[in-house]
Predict the 3D structure of the following.
Amino acid sequence: MTAAARPTWRPGDQRPDTDSMLRVDQAGEYGATRIYAGQLAVFGTRHPTARIVAHMANQEERHLSHFDRMMVERGVRPTVLQPFWHAAGHALGAATALMSPSAAMACTAAVEDEIDAHYGEQLRALGDGDPALSSAIEEFQAEEVEHRDTALAHGAESAFAYPLLYSAIRAGCRAAIFLSKRI
């Protein structure tokens, strides 16, 4: 680890649990890739929404690759729930796409709102203690906000029972975050 990438904490300082941060961030990005894979499995390549989803999926793949590398470099284990997130993410993506394109966008809006809040909490906890992790989170947070804004611009709020769908997906995200940090 270079001096620039080395954490700035000192012995005795209260410091954030960056291992659990990396674990949950990697799990979240993995889950996002699975959600978009499920949506693309339903939409195919010709549906107008597929191009929008594919763009977001490509960014999520890049985020996942970055966190995968950081975990290997730092010796952080992934969550043992990864096989569950594999199936659950794909199922959520496929189910919302089957409902309607606006429901798929509602899913994105809900997930990205929760991730934006989650990344904000992590950045506050990190302070200047881990510049490499903070930099990645800041970059990816901006793209997650872009995804949310794209989803809203493409009809997320017009989905049937949007408030209920949005709230249920956000609650699921909070549960996934809680579990992936710890397990």
Notes: The chain has one domain: 18-182. The domain at 18-182 is CATH 1.20.1260.10 (Ferritin).
